[in-house]
Amino acid sequence: MAAQSDGTVGKALEVLDQVASFGRPVRFAELMDDSPFPKATLYRFVQTLTNQGMLAYDPDRGTYTCGVRLVRLAHAAWRTASLAPIAAAHIDQLSAEVGETVHLAQLDAAQVIYVDKRNAADPVQMYSQSGKVGPAYCTGVGKAMMAYLPDDELTNVLGQQSFHKFTDTTHTSASSLRRELNDIRANGYGFDREEHEPGIICVSVPILTENKRVLGALSVTSTTTRTNLAGLEALVPRIKKTADAISKEASSWHFPAAASHS
């Protein structure tokens, strides 16, 4: 749930986020159990969002899901705001060459959204999936992006991290994370040392513009039974080459010109 709302629109978006977070059809009573809004206010938002096609209501089951209009907007955003279409061929090639899982991610406020993924030849079950949102403070891609944020923006993002301890190696404070972010910025890459899931490790690099603005991040992910951090670190030059190629293509990409009318 968002930390703050920008008026009515912000509150409505919180409700959309809440419905989407269930990952399944949800009843109004379930929304009410975890809502900061009074029942009448929540009901008004749900009804408005349903009327606008952003939510869909199943009268037989009494449940709400994301609506078709929201799906259409999501597809439009995927084409115009996501790195996924630009990066697809590059991460295809990288995954084929390294034989491991490749993730492409972008920052979504203070979280990470996985915008694309290529599985290894021998896939491993893990949390990350395309379209899924994850914590920034304990993922390789999240730390790679945070390391290159301007100071004021980084302070804001750090203030929104939960610092929940998933494993023995998870950062539990902003101060310890800041120290690692400084190292990542100095080295140009970082690691996930089983910080989110036991046995899952990765090496990650940021995707930056020429002016060092963060576009996203790439990671190569494996398991402790298959390799180690040193083995992943050896892949850094190849991953950086892919990140640079994506950045170059993104910088020259433009929205399609509007068709001329006679």
In words, what does this structure look like?
The chain is an alpha+beta fold. It has two domains: 7-73, Winged helix-like DNA-binding domain superfamily/Winged helix DNA-binding domain (Arc Repressor Mutant, subunit A, Orthogonal Bundle); 82-251, GAF domain (Beta-Lactamase), CATH 3.30.450.40. It has ten helices and nine strands. The strands form two sheets. Strands 6-5-4-9-8-7 form a six-stranded antiparallel beta sheet, with helices on both faces. Helix 5 runs antiparallel to helix 10. The protein is globular, with a radius of gyration of 20 Å. The N and C termini lie far apart (48 Å).
Describe the SSE topology.
Elements: H1 7-22, E1 26-27, H2 28-33, H3 39-51, E2 55-58, E3 63-66, H4 68-80, H5 84-98, E4 101-108, E5 111-118, E6 133-135, H6 140-146, H7 151-158, H8 174-187, E7 190-193, E8 200-208, E9 214-223, H9 229-233, H10 236-251
Antiparallel strand pairs: 1-3, 2-3, 4-5, 4-9, 5-6, 7-8, 8-9
Which strands sit side by side, in order, in the main sheet? 6-5-4-9-8-7
Radius of gyration: 20 Å
| Shape by Cα distribution | globular
How many domains comprise the coordinates?
2
List low-confidence stretches: 254-262
Question: What gap, in angstroms, lies between the N and C termini?
Answer: 48 Å
Query: What's the CATH architecture of the largest domain?
Result: 2-Layer Sandwich
